[in-house]
Write a structure and sequence with these properties.
Length: 64
């Protein structure tokens, strides 16, 4: 799915449904910025901790 997007370092990506944050991490490495939305607070908190702990700095969290 990510390959079909043809993302490069100039792209900004909107991800709907962060989940565990795995795809967010991949998108973060391939693009300039990722805007991620997660409606379940439990998943969002886990993903935020995981991504910031591993130095993914170009992710912006959008609350619902």
């Amino acid at each position: 799915m990510i390959e079909k997007l043809e993302i490069n370092k100039n792209c900004k990506v909107l991800e709907v449904g962060t989940g565990s944050g795995y795809q967010t991490a991949i998108l973060s490495k391939l693009s300039r910025r990722v805007y991620s939305i997660e409606r379940h607070e439990f998943f969002k908190k886990k993903a935020v901790v995981l991504l910031f702990k591993n130095y993914f700095k170009n992710v912006v969290w959008i609350g619902i």
